[in-house]
Design brief:
Structural class: alpha/beta
CATH class of the largest domain: Alpha Beta
Shape: globular
Number of helices: 14
Helix content: 25-40%
Largest sheet: 6 strands, mixed
Radius of gyration: 24 Å
Distance between the termini: 49 Å
């Protein structure tokens, strides 16, 4: 039961731990968390893959500590590990650069520090192994000894100050509601629905509505007409799973805002404006075009999977182009280069934090590749894009 009530990883402040091999990164992670999370060994390069641990650091709140392989790893496999380490930066809200206090700053340490700073990520330079260091370095933010525990509490305090969570509380839908409003949620229970539970965006939306002292009416698509008829007053909004836009758009009266979980998540993750701008690229697709469909989770795909089956089929029908090439990524996988792609269609990103979603959108923008998301694409192809954006009047102005 405790696991069900944990803050999702995507809602935690992500803090990456970077540094050379044998700088004591894994030992420091274990000292910070108070658990043997990472394997520790005097052999350089013991950590081969990122290791994550969820914990609480007050006053930041829920955080995710990510232990990474050494930035100076060698050989072909080492280069792959270094690339993986650098990709971790894409999702970091804060970074710890761990330096062996006995060896001091190296060229790779300085290069990593500059890379972190260029990406605008708050960073703390941690000199580890203070128990065996004979001198102090002015470039160090805090000296610690993961072996003895010296300085670890001071590091936690510094992290709480420097990696402070945003003071602006982001809402999924609650800031658009008033106490006493009713919101109807349409959540299909089909082969793709997880057994015995709702998907994360649905759960988060329900919680956000309740936090606004509004009321939730949750139904399946076939029950929507009865639900609307049973309400004495029209609901403030109807929020649906994007894939049923076509089924319900004529059922919901025009005067009632109609939106989707995916569109709300795009706004919540900071990519909605770019997604609205990028969706028009669907009309420009030519035979042979390459389309990347990317998901942030790694769920088991069903025969009617929305990303790999339904969206490609709908794009082919909408464009009349049968010779389109669809490519798919999931989880943490995302191409280092988008060269050769004509369009990127991303899921709502509920399993990714805001920084990573913004990074993926920026990668596309930097390479001139249109970037949109599931909800926006499906609303567009169902002819209800403007209607689905009624909660976002500033974006409607751009569509005129």
């Amino acid at each position: 039961m405790a696991e069900m009530n944990q803050t999702p990883s995507s809602e935690r402040v992500h803090i990456g731990v970077f540094g050379r091999r044998n700088a004591g990164k894994s030992s420091l992670v274990n000292a910070l968390t108070g658990q043997e999370i990472s394997v520790v060994s005097p052999v350089a390069g013991t950590t081969t893959d990122p290791v994550s641990k969820a914990m609480e650091i007050l006053p930041i709140g829920p955080v995710l500590i990510i232990d990474t392989p050494g930035i100076d790893d060698e050989g072909e496999l080492g280069e792959m590990r270094v690339r993986t380490t650098m990709r971790i930066l894409n999702k970091c809200d804060g970074a710890l650069l761990v330096v062996d206090a006995a060896r001091g700053f190296s060229t790779s340490d300085r290069e990593t520090l500059e890379l972190i700073k260029r990406r605008g990520i708050p960073v703390i330079t941690v000199f580890n192994k203070s128990d065996v260091a004979s001198a102090r370095d002015a470039e160090c933010d805090v000296y610690v000894s993961a072996a003895t525990g010296e300085g670890v509490e001071k590091l936690r305090e510094l992290m709480a100050k420097r990696f402070k969570a945003s003071s602006e509380e982001k809402r999924i839908i609650g800031d658009r509601l008033s106490a006493g409003d009713t919101v109807v949620l349409v959540t299909p229970i089909d082969a793709s629905a997880p057994k015995g539970r709702l998907i994360l965006p649905q759960v988060q939306t329900i919680r956000d509505i309740l936090d606004s002292h509004a009321m939730v009416y949750t139904v399946q698509p076939e029950e929507l007409p009865s639900a609307l008829a049973n309400l004495k007053t029209p609901p403030r909004a109807v929020i649906v799973d994007s894939q049923v836009f076509g089924k319900v758009k004529d059922t919901v009266p025009e005067e009632i805002p109609l939106c989707s979980f995916s569109i709300l998540m795009a706004a919540y993750k900071g990519i909605l404006a770019g997604a609205v701008e990028g969706v028009a690229a669907i009309e420009k697709l030519r035979d042979g075009a390459n389309i990347l469909v990317s998901e942030g989770c790694t769920h088991h795909r069903q025969c009617e999977d929305i990303g790999t089956v339904k969206i490609p089929a709908m794009i082919r029908r909408h464009t009349g182009k049968s010779d389109l090439n669809f490519h798919f990524t999931s989880g943490g996988g995302f191409p280092e280069s988008l060269d050769g792609y004509d369009l990127v269609i991303h899921c709502g990103g509920c399993m990714l934090n805001e920084r990573e979603m913004r990074y993926r959108g920026k990668c596309a923008a930097d390479e001139g590749v249109p970037f949109t998301n599931y909800g926006i694409a499906l609303a567009y192809m169902n002819g209800i894009l403007k209607r689905s954006l009624s909660f976002f009047p500033e974006l409607l102005e751009k569509l005129k």
